[in-house]
């Protein structure tokens, strides 16, 4: 029978609480933040975010986690979170990012996993449609091999709930509208962005206009962004002629694939089926995208000038009933109906369009970006490829750490010579945001344009201009997997993405001669692409772990070392022979010269080894390995080499710098470990060792 | 550009919230519950739980989830949750149960996974200890192949947080001590348990005595249980001579296996290493159990009567320093020390003891159990096998659904003849609690006695009485895996566990002749044992799923059908030939005759198929399959047969009733599906169809 004699010690209650990410170190002065009744009248925040949709909330959450929780405000004109409709799909890459923040569990548990896509086409033998293929939904390697659908409002709630663990104050202000901003460094050079907001009252009181000041303003306020308009920017691009209706409801059907994502092309039009999560009633939701045809007569030839007006008219004529009727025609010979006893959850009609701004930042007179656009505020797509919410949140993911590093004084100042230059070449870490994300937006808009036309086109129909054979359609679908999964993003070279990589170093012998984009999509290391997850076995405790779990989104850089088999000195124990091992030398360089040269706790070390046996001990390896990477030192889980996945030769190894967002910065040979310093000099300020 | 036309509908905000388990249906009258100022003066609750440790909180949470949230109170005399020390290990079975409640994520993410055990023994070639083997921590099949260690207070916080999602009121009352109870049916036959509590004030106010009344009282108030004493029960058994110290701290050591569970036997004593979770400082905790020797001189021969007193004295002489000093001797030639800059987290000394009560319930004059004991209140073990917190919570897990079914009027009344009988044979579902859990407690105490002696004994030492060779030790360790994993529990036959199973039905051909306990531990179906988890592929959406995810702990029974390959009628589509298929017949019987005979929403259907191809359609199978089990119909994920794991022949199939706690109730042949009614008549009241 236990008779305990307990001792009491401090910091114990931390054992009980939910874990929190530790904030980034701060070298810059903590600003003196004044709230509503500050001495000079204006509220001040380091960052003000306009819009509490997925992009705005995600940015706010990330900044709070990185350490800005006390000087952060997010304003949204709506009184609460979204209740129905809009976006519903999360890509594999978004799920990967969410898992580095611990935000994935509810989404994976409760969301609908789309493992497969079923393709349906006009039957060659009978009336109506028939299934022509099952295809995996995600064909690229990824931590999660499926997309997840779940209501956008729920994702917003998850983000906001997590945010509250980091911000003791109330920092998300709803019923607060953005009016406009000016850059005004003269009256307050530290907080040069002067923002007008309207605090909306209830029906009985009128809005109250207020001024808040910020170092940086972010417009996450959607397709009709007022921040964008205040910047003097416009969305450019076209709204096409394709009209689609979208309905979320509990379906009653004998269509056999209703729980799978389906691309249905019938002789009477197209439908996309998006299976959705189970709702509180116990039913499963279904989303249908229904192509709308011939609501009003098609235009005569030459009537092109009126096309947009005509489409708008057509759209206005669309009703829930007409969408469902058209759906029924496409599904024939199968029946669809609203499940008896249930209501339609949400419906809408829209025209497919791809539009974007040509800039997404506004610089002050010193060339410092003061205003940023993320999400729909700077690019809108069709919902077909399931991109919208994902790309928007990834904008925020790209911006947040750069902004936090800048505000915390961790990023180096630009070279004097480049400072005032209007060139597009990034000279600071913060500069790279627009450089990287506008390129992604452009690529995605091109892809989406192709992809959504394809869905609107009539497959196999000879007359259709956009006509594609079923095989062509499948090919576009597979080729697009890099985009649709979010895993194919590749950031262009810049100060934080190395331009030239030595193929001798990074590529597997077989791959050197023909490293194709496919190989990079499969995991071969390439600056600008995300580090692929694999399962590894940790040396210290023999646990199987996801490599990504050592690359959590805490705002830190990591050095990933692929050691060679000379890491273990079989003769060692008494004689120190570290100087003969190239792996040991690289580790010594990294631990003694690279990591300590930058602010404490900004670069972490992860080390991989190629040994399939376990008959080696800590004291056969350099001391710094255990000191710096005791719990982040891993090997393979089975007989296959996992170095191969990354295009690294076991006989040569590699050192890799990984950015805080999980993208590869630079790949170097073990012998060249010292040159990591050249890379980090672009990313982080040096400190006195 | 989307131009949405939204419609508004009710119940939409449910889409945003975290999902909640739906409560059990209730056939009995909802009692009129009065709180503090009720008309007759006493607070009333259907269930009162004393003690808010893991057992009490888990019980309270389960009852709230099952639907009793408004008539439930939990009292604890302490002002808050535990801050350090005590239990720290969760077994694979406990993790399985937690995952059926969605309570596993934080524990798996933040806890320490013990994948392996390292055995260390006196070196044969040099001074000090050497590693003799690595052994997997868990050798039985289970959803999680490892134990997890994490601070008990954190588990309590997780349970309490989840509880608050189900109980809008404050139902966990701290600083409230239990005084005593009486059974008093005369003044209030519906709430016969009269409970005296002391509401403790702060230092300035004196406790306030109060009476609360309940239908049932549960003592989850630990080894010193006052509820147990009020029942007139005692713990019986022995406190042995073995003394151990336990310390939680951040260790600084060159011992190579410090992140693994270790059993160290040196010439100077034994130590168990339990690796622990990472704490907020970034360090990893370590727990050491250190065997204490010769603190005061051993007893002379014949001095047996004074043994306990002697041990207590010895225990009192133990200090943190003496524990660490002894630890250092055992670890030699390796060094251990408290990590510089950190404090010891917690330490204690205890004597190993195995004690239990001979009863765990108290019946009223009608033979209805009114008072129950769970956890340490009725059995205490050594911490060596990591049992304590697990067995305690599993007591609550066993009790909660039986109590909820009884209070909701779902369980049938006992046969008149047996009602007043004092026999130990259970005649109601509620009766089976004591029957099942006291047996488990007895078995575990026997096992723990053997297991912990073994740890205290000197391995390989010829003189030691308990001396075991290293191989003998390893054997006990492996044989004990059923106990230590929690997966080997087998409930004895009763009205809810079928006694005789037809081996022809359940066992695989090869297994029929010699189905050993091992086979059951490996998953072969056996009434009284838990259903093993496997990965299956859902037919409707091709998702890979854990079978356990269809057996969530919502208090429902399930019928699990292993169909044969005649389920699919290859000729069908136009002609209905269901009457020729034994699988289809069994499904029809279950869906038309069994499930509707009992209260709505108390029995769910899960169906498995043996097909490795996917070329069959819903319309080739009986309609009731899609109606009752569209999203719970699964097949194998690869070429191997998964029926084999369960000992079911693909050519014969089986129907299985699974209890709400995941244990097999009865296994029948497909042809005998109708006889499931005999089983469910013991479990649930019949309703008019």
UniProtKB/TrEMBL annotation, chains A, B:
Pfam families, per database record: FAD_binding_3, Phe_hydrox_dim
Domain FAD-binding stretches: 45-447
Ribosomal protein is among the record's keywords: no
Region (Disordered): 1-40
Location of the Phenol hydroxylase-like C-terminal dimerisation domain: 489-686
Single GO molecular function: oxidoreductase activity, acting on paired donors, with incorporation or reduction of molecular oxygen, NAD(P)H as one donor, and incorporation of one atom of oxygen
Keywords: FAD, Flavoprotein, Oxidoreductase
InterPro entries, per the entry: FAD-bd (IPR002938), FAD/NAD-bd_sf (IPR036188), Phe_hydrox_C_dim_dom (IPR012941), PHOX_C_sf (IPR038220), RIFMO-like (IPR050641), Thioredoxin-like_sf (IPR036249)
Family recorded in the similarity comment: Belongs to the PheA/TfdB FAD monooxygenase family.
Protein name per the record: FAD-binding domain-containing protein
């Amino acid at each position: 029978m236990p008779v305990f004699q307990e001792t009491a010690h401090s910091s114990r209650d931390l054992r009980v609480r939910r874990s929190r990410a530790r904030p980034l170190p701060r070298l810059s002065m903590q600003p003196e933040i004044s709230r509503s009744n500050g001495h000079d009248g204006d509220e001040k925040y380091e960052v003000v975010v306009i819009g509490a949709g997925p992009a705005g909330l995600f940015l706010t959450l990330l900044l709070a986690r990185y350490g800005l929780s006390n000087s952060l405000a997010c304003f949204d004109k709506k009184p609460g979170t979204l209740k129905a409709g809009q976006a519903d799909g999360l890509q594999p890459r978004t799920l990967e990012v969410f898992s580095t923040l611990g935000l994935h569990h509810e989404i994976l548990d409760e969301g609908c996993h789309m493992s497969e896509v079923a393709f349906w086409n006009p039957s060659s033998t009978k009336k109506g449609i028939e299934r022509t293929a099952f295809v995996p939904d995600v064909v690229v390697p990824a931590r999660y091999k499926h997309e997840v659908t779940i209501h956008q409002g729920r994702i917003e709630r998850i983000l906001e709930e997590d945010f509250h663990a980091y911000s003791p104050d109330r920092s998300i202000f709803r019923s607060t509208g953005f009016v406009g901003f000016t850059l005004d460094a003269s009256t307050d050079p530290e907080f040069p962005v002067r923002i007008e907001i309207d605090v909306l009252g209830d029906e009985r009181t009128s809005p109250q206009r207020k001024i808040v000041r910020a170092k940086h303003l972010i417009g996450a306020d959607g397709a009709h962004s007022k921040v964008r308009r205040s910047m003097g920017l416009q969305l450019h691009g076209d709204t096409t002629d394709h009209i689609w209706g979208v309905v979320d409801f509990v379906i009653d059907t004998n269509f056999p694939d209703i729980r799978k994502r389906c691309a249905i092309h019938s002789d009477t039009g197209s439908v996309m089926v998006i299976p959705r999560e189970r709702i509180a009633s116990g039913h499963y939701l279904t989303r249908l995208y229904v192509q709308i045809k011939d609501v009003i007569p098609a235009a005569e030839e030459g009537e092109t000038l009126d096309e947009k007006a005509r489409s708008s008219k057509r759209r206005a004529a669309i009703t829930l009933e007409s969408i469902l009727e058209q759906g029924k025609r496409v599904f024939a010979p199968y029946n669809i109906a609203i499940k008896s006893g249930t209501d339609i959850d949400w419906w809408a009609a829209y025209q497919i369009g791809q539009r974007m701004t040509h800039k997404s930042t506004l610089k002050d007179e010193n060339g410092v970006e003061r205003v940023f656009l993320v999400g729909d505020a700077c690019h809108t797509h069709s919902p077909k490829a399931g991109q919208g919410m994902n790309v928007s949140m990834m904008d925020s993911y790209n911006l947040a750490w750069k902004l936090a590093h800048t505000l915390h004084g961790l990023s180096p100042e630009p070279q004097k010579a480049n400072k005032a230059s209007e060139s597009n070449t990034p000279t600071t870490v913060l500069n790279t945001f627009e450089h990287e994300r506008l390129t992604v937006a452009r690529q995605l808009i091109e892809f989406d344009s192709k992809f959504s036309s394809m869905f609107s086109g009539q497959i196999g129909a000879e007359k259709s201009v956009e006509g594609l054979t079923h095989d062509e359609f499948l090919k576009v679908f597979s080729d697009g997997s890099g985009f649709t999964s979010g895993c194919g993003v590749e950031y262009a070279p810049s100060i934080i993405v190395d331009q030239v990589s030595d193929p001798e170093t990074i590529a597997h012998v077989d791959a050197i001669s023909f490293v194709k984009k496919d190989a990079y999509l499969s995991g071969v290391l390439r600056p600008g692409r995300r580090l692929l997850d694999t399962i590894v076995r940790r040396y210290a405790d023999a646990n199987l772990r996801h490599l990504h779990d050592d690359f959590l989104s805490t705002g830190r850089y990591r050095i990933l070392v692929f050691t060679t088999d000379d890491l273990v000195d079989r003769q060692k124990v008494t004689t120190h022979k570290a100087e003969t091992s190239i792996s040991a030398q690289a580790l010594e360089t990294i631990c003694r010269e690279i990591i300590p040269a930058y602010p404490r706790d900004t670069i972490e070390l992860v080390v991989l080894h190629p040994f399939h046996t376990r008959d080696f001990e800590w004291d056969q390896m350099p001391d710094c390995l255990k000191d710096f990477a005791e719990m982040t030192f891993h090997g393979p889980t089975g007989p296959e080499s996992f170095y191969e996945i990354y295009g690294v030769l076991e006989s040569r190894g590699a050192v890799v710098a990984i950015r805080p967002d999980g993208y590869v910065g630079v790949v170097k040979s073990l012998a060249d470990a010292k040159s990591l310093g050249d890379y980090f000099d672009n990313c982080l300020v040096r400190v006195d060792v």
